[in-house]
Amino acid sequence: MELNEAINEIKKQGYKTTAKRKDMLQFFDEADGYRTAKDLINYLEPKYEGISFDTVYRNLHLFDDIGVLETTELNGEKHFRISCTHHHHHHFICKDCGKTKEIDICPMDEVLKALDNYAIEDHKFEIYGVCPVCQEA
Amino acid sequence: MELNEAINEIKKQGYKTTAKRKDMLQFFDEADGYRTAKDLINYLEPKYEGISFDTVYRNLHLFDDIGVLETTELNGEKHFRISCTHHHHHHFICKDCGKTKEIDICPMDEVLKALDNYAIEDHKFEIYGVCPVCQEA
DNA sequence: TCCCAAATCGTAATCATTCCTATTTACAAA
DNA sequence: TTTGTAAATAGGAATGATTACGATTTGGGA
Question: Of A19, A39, A73, A131, which is most buried with the most CB atoms under 10 A?
Answer without folding.
Answer: A131
